[in-house]
């Protein structure tokens, strides 16, 4: 069982939320003593920019549960240093749980109350498969930051093969950076590909958003697309398929601009209006009488 998060290399180089001391508290600079076994190379914290890209998703989830975003209970079951609590608090989400506990033991004793699971799981051992298994069996939305290659793994197809329409992806135009904390990863343990500042960006990773029933993923996706078209963020792309993610990233980068899906949203609205107009103008069926 691993703290969080992964092995990386660099490019350019029923419990409750009542434990207030873990929600939005100031992060200590001292190294935490984890209450579970860890792999030192799994310690890598996600940069704040990545959380900005899922704000529209969290806002729509809040709307689904008819609560304000600051009341949305977000659970990250993999603990590294807890800095993600501060990152989300800065974005207006204050009910965040990320505590020093063993995720797998928690599953046995009872998971905490939460509206959504949001995490960047460790990559070593079988953590990815175990995390995805938990998500597919959950009745809550799950937002996972994973490498793009995870979707090609046999265990992913086995778990989500019949639910692929319940998943969509959000990917950044620029790779996310992850930081190996100096107090958790000794210099002697850092791989040669990790920068002097501890930052690493190994490959294209993206957010996997899974919406279980009773969520209507098609409607949710279209609403999200329009919201992001109007309000952003504009430095990422949204797609229903991983292949579409790669195509959109390539296209947007080639244009040298930011991902702005206003045209897609506008085209969608035009199609709806056209369909409605055609329905209204449809000729009467012979033998029927129409009334004004």
TrEMBL record:
Residues 1-24, 250-292 are annotated as: Disordered. Residues 261-270 have a biased composition (Basic and acidic residues). This is Poly(A) RNA polymerase GLD2-B.
């Amino acid at each position: 069982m691993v703290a969080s998060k992964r092995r990386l290399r660099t490019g350019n180089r029923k419990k409750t939320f009542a434990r207030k001391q873990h929600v939005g508290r100031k992060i200590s600079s001292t190294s935490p003593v984890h209450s579970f076994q860890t792999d030192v190379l799994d310690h890598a914290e996600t940069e704040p920019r990545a959380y900005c890209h899922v704000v529209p998703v969290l806002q729509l989830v809040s709307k689904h549960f008819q609560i304000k975003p600051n009341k949305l209970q977000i659970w990250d079951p993999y603990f590294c240093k807890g800095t993600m609590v501060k990152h989300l608090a800065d974005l207006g989400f204050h009910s965040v749980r990320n505590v020093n506990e063993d995720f797998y033991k928690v599953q046995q004793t009872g998971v905490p109350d939460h509206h959504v699971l949001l995490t960047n799981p460790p990559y070593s051992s079988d953590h990815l498969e175990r995390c995805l298994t938990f998500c597919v069996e959950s009745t809550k939305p799950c937002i996972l930051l994973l490498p793009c290659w995870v979707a090609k793994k046999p265990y992913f197809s086995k778990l989500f093969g019949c639910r692929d329409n319940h998943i969509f992806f959000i990917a950044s135009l620029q790779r996310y950076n992850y930081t190996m904390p100096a107090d958790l990863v000794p210099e002697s343990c850092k791989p040669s590909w990790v920068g002097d500042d501890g930052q690493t960006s190994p490959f294209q990773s993206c957010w996997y958003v899974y919406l279980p029933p009773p969520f209507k993923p098609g409607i949710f996706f279209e609403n999200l697309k329009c919201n992001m078209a109007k309000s952003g963020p504009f430095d990422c792309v949204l797609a229903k398929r991983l292949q579409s993610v790669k195509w959109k990233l390539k296209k947007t980068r080639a244009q040298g601009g930011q991902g702005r899906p206003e045209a897609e949203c506008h085209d969608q609205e035009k199609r709806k209006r056209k369909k409605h107009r055609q329905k209204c103008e449809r000729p009467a069926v012979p033998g029927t009488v129409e009334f004004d």
